Amino acid sequence: MATTDTVTAETRVALSPNFRNPAVRVRGIEKRYGSVQAVAGVDLEVADGEFFTMLGPSGSGKTTLLRLIAGFERPDAGTVELAGVDVTRLPPYARDVNTVFQDYALFPHMSVQENVEYGLRVRRVPKSARVERARAALEMVRLGGLGDRRPVQLSGGQRQRVALARSIVNEPSVLLLDEPLGALDLKLRQEMQGELKRIQREVGITFIYVTHDQEEALTMSDRIAVFNQGRIEQVGTAVDVYERPSTEFAAGFVGTSNFLVRDGQRFTVRPEKIQVLSPGAEAPGQLHAEEGAVVDLVYLGAATRMTVALDTGGQVVALRQNLEAADIAPPFPPGARVRVAWDWAQAHEIETSPVADRSNTSTRRAEV
Amino acid sequence: MAESARPRARQSDGVARINAALWKRAWLRATLTLTPPLAWFLVIYVASLVVMLVTAFWTVNPLANTLEHSWTLANFRTIFTSTYLTIIGRTVVIAALVTITDAVIAFPFAFFMARVAGPRSRRILFSAVLLPLWASYLARVYAWIAILQKGGVLNWTLGHIGLGAPNLGYTNVAIWLVFSYIWLPFMIVPVYSALERIPDSYLEASADLGARNWRTTLRIVLPLALPGVVAGSIFTFSLTLGDFITPILIGGASSNFVGNVIYSNIGTAGNLPFAAALAVVPIVIMSIYLLGARALGAFEAL
Lengths: 368, 302
Hints:
The structure holds two protein chains of two kinds.
Chain A: H1 4-15, E1 24-33, E2 36-46, E3 51-55, H2 62-70, E4 77-82, E5 85-86, E6 97-100, H3 112-122, H4 127-140, H5 156-168, E7 174-178, H6 186-203, E8 206-211, H7 214-220, E9 223-228, E10 231-236, H8 238-243, H9 248-253, E11 258-262, E12 265-269, E13 275-277, E14 288-299, E15 303-310, E16 315-321, E17 337-342, E18 348-349, H10 358-367
Parallel strand pairs in A: 3-8, 3-9, 6-7, 7-8
Antiparallel strand pairs in A: 1-2, 1-4, 4-5, 9-10, 11-12, 12-18, 13-17, 14-15, 14-17, 15-16
Chain B: H1 2-10, H2 13-24, H3 26-55, E1 59-61, E2 66-68, H4 74-79, H5 82-116, H6 119-130, H7 137-148, H8 153-161, H9 172-196, H10 200-208, H11 213-242, H12 245-250, H13 258-266, H14 272-295
Antiparallel strand pairs in B: 1-2
Helix pairs in contact in B: 3-14, 5-9, 5-11, 9-11, 10-11, 11-14, 13-14
C-alpha cells in the first residue's frame, strides 16, 4: 500500500494555496437547532482565491456552515474570520461576502438590471458607474441585453446567472454558493459548472461552494471538504478525496467504493481499478486475483457495472469499460464464474469512520 | 392499447362522446363551467345596478310624490351644488384618512404576525384581529359612543389625569376613529398574507447585498406587500365610502356622509332617483381609485 501521507503533502504543495492569509477561517464552530446538532465543531481554512467545495449529504451541516459564514445565523460556539478579522458578531450587511442562493432569491419587482445594481446602490455607487458595472457583470455571465427583463421572464439557467451577476458585481472577497445548480437539468448543470470555473478564474474571488453532487465537487474544486453529521470527515484535493479517502464515509460518499477485509485489514478499492477476467485466466503483471461469481450486471452506456461475490468473502463492484458494443461482446452474465484482479498499490487501507452511517453510505452508493 | 381502452369501454357511448368533445374544445368547457355563475351574477348584480342607474335619470313629482319616468339630468346637477360637493369631499377625505391610518397601523402589526411571531403567538394575534368581527357592528359602534360621548370613558379618564376632556363625540374625528377601528381587520389580513408570502431568502439576499433592515423594509418588503395594502385599502376605502350607520350614530349635525344622505333620500325624503344618482358617486370614485392604483403598479407584483 502506498505511502499516502507524502503524496498528499506533495499534491497540496503543488497547488500552493495561500494559507498564511486565509480568506475564511472557521474555528470550533457549533450550531444547534433545538435537539439537532447541525454543525458539531468545525475547523476550516479556505485560502485566498481558492475554489473550495463543501460536499455532503443533506443534513450534514454544509449549508448551515455557509449561512454561518454569510452571517444569517449566529453560532453557538466558535468564531468566523474573514481575511483575519473576526466577524462572528457582525450582521450579513457588514460582511464582505455575497451569497448565491439555492432559490436564487431574485427580487421579483425589479428588472434584471435593477437586481444586479442593488448591492451597488446600497453602497451608494454613483449611477453611471453602477449601470456600467451591472452591465459588465451581466456580460460576464452572458446575459448582456436582458437587463430590462423581469426575473419571471427568464429561464432557470438565466435566473441562476443573474443571481451570480448580482453577487460578483459587488466584488466581494468571498462568494458563497448554496447548491446553485441544484435546480437545473443535467446538461445545463454541466455547462454552468464550466461557466462558474471560468468566472472564478476571471474575477479571482474565493468561492465556497456547497453541493451534494460528488461529481460536481470533483470536477470544479481546488479542494473539497467532505461533511457528515455536522463534522468534516476529510479535506483535500479532488485526487486526495477520491483516491485516498481517509474514512469509510468519505470513501462511500465520493464515488463508489468496495470495502473488503483481507488479513484482518480493512481496505477500499475503486470499481474502475478492478479488472474482470475469465475464470482461471492469468492475472496480468503483479495483480492480486480472486475468484467469484457475477451477482448483478447493469449496463450504463459507457461502462458496465458488475457486482461479483468473492469466494473468499465479500462483494466487489467492478466497472468494465464497454470497449465494444455490449450486445456484440456480451459481458459475463449473472451467475457466471469470473476472476477479478486489482493492484494492491491502488487499494487504500481505511479505518472505520467514528460517525460512519452505514445505511446512508449504502443508499448513496446505490444512487451513484 | 387494449389496457387503455378498457376503462373507456365501461362508459356508455354517449358519455364517452361528450367527454371527448369537451376534451377537444377548451372553450366549450369554459362556457359550460362559467355560464351558471355568470348568469346569476348578471341577473342579481349587474341587473340591479343597471336599474339603479336608469332610476338616477328619473324624477319624483313633488306634489303627487310619484316617480316620473322622464329622462332628466336634474339629479346629477343637484349633486354638483356646494351642499353635496361638501358632503362628497368630507366622505372622500375621511375615507382616505381611515385608509392611511389603517395601513400605517396594519403594516407593522401584520409584519410582526407574519415574520416575527412564533406559531403560537401568531394564532393568538389572529384571533385578536378577527374576534371583533364576531360581534355585531352596531354593538361595536355603540361601544365607541360610550367611550367618546360627553360623560364617556375617554373624557372621564383624560379629565382625571388632568389633560382636559377632548369631547370627541359627534365630530368628524369620532367618525375617523370609529371607522379606523372597525375596518382595521380588513387591512391587516390582506397585508399579512402578502407579507407571509415573501420568502426569507429575499430578505437575506438584501442583507447579504449590504442593506440594513430599514432599507430592506423600504425596498423589498414594502413593494412586495403593496398588493396586499392595495387590497386592504379597497376594503377600508370603499366600506367607509358607502357606510351610513356610523355617520348617523356617531357623527354630528355637520357630519353627513354620502351613505347617510342616500339613506335619508330612500327613507324619509322618498327621493329614490336622487338617491340613485348619488350612489353613482362612490362607484365613480372607486373606479378612479382602482385605475390609479393600477397606474401606480400596485398590481404588478401579483
